[in-house]
Design a protein that fits this description.
The complex is a heterodimer of chains A (339) and B (291). Chain A has 339 residues and is an alpha/beta fold. In chain A, 46% of the residues lie in helices and 13% in strands. Chain A contains 14 helices and 10 strands. Chain A has helices spanning 17-20, 27-39, 67-76, 94-102, 121-129, 146-159, 175-188, 204-214, 235-244, 253-267, 276-284, 290-301, 305-314, 323-338, and strands spanning 5-6, 8-11, 44-46, 82-87, 107-113, 133-139, 163-167, 192-196, 218-221, 247-248. Chain B has a 7-stranded parallel beta sheet with strand order 3-2-1-4-5-7-6, sandwiched between helices. Helix content of chain B is 39%, strand content 25%. The relative contact order of chain B is 0.15. Chain B is built from 10 helices and 13 strands. The chains are: A alpha/beta (339), B alpha/beta (291). Chain A binds chain B through residues 57-59, 89-91, 93-95, 113, 115-116, 118-119, 121-123, 315-318, 320-321, 323-324, 326-327, 330-331, and chain B through 146, 148, 150, 152, 155, 160, 163-167, 169-171, 187, 189-195, 202, 204, 206, 208, 240-241, 244, 249, 251, 253. Chain A: Keywords: Aromatic hydrocarbons catabolism, Lyase, Manganese, Metal-binding.
């Protein structure tokens, strides 16, 4: 009998999911969710502001609870799962990474726009020096061709990353595009490959399976789909599907379902579904966390949020440029008054 | 009117752009460009334009130190540590364009007048030069409890130095938002955007004024005044739209188009640094001449 194929899951509901809650997590909620994930034997749990360490800001939304308290709380209730943190250079710095590591974070995920991997060098070096398992996280991967992604992944590999992720931040990739990207990485880089999906086009599961088939061995999921835009690949569903496919995750299927239904669902302000705004994110190729900001701007300027998102897509805005939302909305509102 | 002699240390993009701007000054006389590569475009141009071109670095300049009273350092933060000591010993005034931040942090329309006697001044970062005038514009009307700036620049205008040390940008800019801009707490974010054609530098400034101190009309007038003041030395600096005031929050949207001297127009982030450098040197020179 051949050994079963394995993938290692990272649960992102306490980081990407923070967008869906407008960064209002409390220590009690994080404790409860992290405890459940630990009991379900999820290998990694990511905890941070939605935009990574130091993301709490007027630009992205202020955290209700200091993220270091949330990291500490998650570390305290986990003896199996390892706590991971996300850091976007330009927002967070090595200083916050060190602080997270001292509190017990074991994995560092360093995220850059897919063409800007060289800004991650100092943070990847620092994470390795701190003894952390280190991930290079190439965001907005739909905006670059496979060759470009390989070139950027190689940079992260050269700085010492143990794993490099293709990240579909806009939920805009189609399954065949995921396949070509992961295959190109598999052929050209030596480290493990990961994939992070968003469900804006209802393709998170299909894309995740395409990634695994093409050679990805690290996969992100979010319990009850809790993430920016329409959320990520739903962890409890993924665990069931992979089990059916004969792929091992080591995660307890029943415990994940119970956690999703009994603990996570009640704290959601609204069920995570594919709203028209989320759908347009995927369609226009816009960073998933823009959805709620665009909705607020649309109300303020009396516009349709979809028009704002489409215009942002036309302007090739990248992750983190939330200030462009109000700017574009103000411009569209001006044009509207003239018409 | 007599002119004050200046030299540029560093013959890369920033040094070469400075060379072109200094050629237009009626109070500064560029005499010397110092590099370490005789074949660099910057030193070649310097020779063509009739300046003394030194290709043996700071040591070569110190042998003929009478060539300049003010020296721009457009090398790197690491090199500046050594240059700062050597130039101080030689009695030169230094305008540090690197992120070394060893000297006094200066944003010309905010705090230059108080520091005309300083030996070494630092220009912080491009994001700092673009946004701190506006933090100050709000703070001089209503005390700013918190200021946060987001600088978005085109990927093409971010050089290898910026990329390798992006933490220095966030840390130095945050510090200056407080120390120079006057905010009680400061935060800085930088984003690189690879879109083609390259985008102009854009900056967003969020400020929260102390509860109960919002003076909407006065703040708007102060911001408009500051826009004009910065434009006097950075012509491509402008507000993208009216500031947005919401409760105790003031949000200001800025765009910086470069003058297109040596660097392309989209790199307003580099232009605002060289323009600020020239502005500081001109004020230094006026002060030296009147003494």
């Amino acid at each position: 009998m051949t050994e079963r194929q394995k993938v290692l899951l990272t649960e992102v509901a306490l980081r990407d999911g923070s967008h869906a809650l407008s960064h209002q997590y409390t220590v009690q909620q994080v404790e409860k969710i992290a405890k459940g994930l630990n009991e379900a034997k999820v290998p990694y749990i990511e905890v941070a502001h939605g935009d990574g360490l130091a993301g709490s800001s007027l630009q992205y939304g202020r955290s209700k609870t200091n993220e270091f308290e949330l990291i500490e709380a998650a570390v305290a209730v986990t003896d199996f799962s390892k706590v991971a943190v996300l850091l976007i250079p330009g927002i967070g710095t090595v200083k916050e990474l060190k602080q997270a590591q001292q509190l017990g974070a074991k994995m560092a995920r360093i995220a850059t726009h897919v063409t800007e991997a060289d800004v991650s060098a100092q943070h990847i070096y620092a994470a390795k020096e701190l003894g952390m398992e280190t991930v290079g996280f190439l965001m907005m991967s739909h905006m670059a061709e496979p060759e470009k992604i390989v070139e950027q992944a190689k940079l992260m590999e050269s700085y010492g990353a143990d794993i490099v992720y293709v990240v579909d931040s806009a939920g805009a990739l189609l399954p065949n595009q995921v396949t070509t990207r992961i295959k190109a990485m598999k052929e050209n880089i030596g480290v493990e490959i990961g994939f992070h999906a968003h469900n804006n086009l209802s393709l998170a599961m299909a894309n995740t399976l395409a990634a695994i088939e093409a050679g990805a061995t690290r996969i992100d999921g979010s319990v009850r789909c809790l993430g920016a835009g329409a959320g990520n690949t739903q962890t409890e569903v993924l665990v069931g599907v992979l089990d059916r496919m004969g792929i091992e995750t080591g995660v307890d299927f029943y415990k994940m379902m119970d956690l999703a239904e009994d603990v996570v669902a009640p704290i959601l302000p609204v069920p995570q579904e594919i709203t028209k705004n989320s759908l347009v994110l995927g369609y226009a190729g816009v960073y998933s966390s823009f959805a709620l900001h665009a909705q607020r701007a649309a109300e303020k300027f009396n516009l349709d949020a979809r028009d704002i998102l489409i215009e942002l897509g036309n302007r090739k805005v990248v992750g983190g440029q939330e200030d462009m939302i109000v700017d574009v909305a103000a411009e569209l509102a001006k044009v509207k008054t003239f018409v | 009117m007599s002119k004050v002699k200046v030299a540029i240390l560093g013959s890369g993009n920033i040094g070469t752009d400075l060379m072109i701007k200094l050629g237009r000054s009626d109070i500064l006389e560029l005499t010397t460009v110092i590099g370490i590569d005789a074949n660099s475009d910057g030193l070649r141009r310097a020779k063509e334009l009739g300046y003394v071109a030194i290709d043996t670095g700071i040591d070569g300049f110190l042998e003929q130190a009478e060539l300049a009273d003010i020296v721009f350092d457009a090398t790197s933060a690491k090199a500046h540590i050594h240059h700062a000591k050597a130039l101080k010993a030689a009695g030169k005034k230094v305008i540090d364009m690197t992120p070394a931040a060893v000297g006094k942090l200066i944003v010309p329309p905010v705090n230059l007048k108080e520091h005309l006697e300083a030996e070494n001044i630092n220009l912080i970062t491009c994001g700092g030069q673009a946004t701190i005038p506006m933090v100050h514009a709000v703070n001089r009307v209503s005390p700013v409890a918190y200021a946060e700036i987001v600088a978005t620049i085109s990927s093409k205008s971010a050089g290898p130095g910026t990329r390798a040390n992006i933490d220095e940008f966030t840390e130095t800019t945050s510090r200056a938002i407080q120390e120079v801009g006057g905010a009680k707490k400061g935060k800085a974010i930088i984003i690189l955007n690879p879109a083609e054609p390259p985008i102009l530098m854009r900056d967003t400034v969020y400020t929260l004024v102390e509860e109960g101190t919002m003076k909407e009309e006065e703040i708007k007038a102060s911001i408009a005044d500051m826009e004009k003041t910065v434009q006097s030395y950075v012509p491509g600096y402008r507000l993208r739209t009216e500031p947005i005031i919401d409760g105790n929050q003031v949000t200001i949207f800025i765009e910086v188009e470069g003058a297109g001297d040596y660097l392309p127009k989209y790199s307003g982030n580099l232009d605002i640094m060289t323009a600020a450098g020239v502005k500081v040197a001109e004020e230094f020179a006026r002060n030296l001449i009147t003494q």
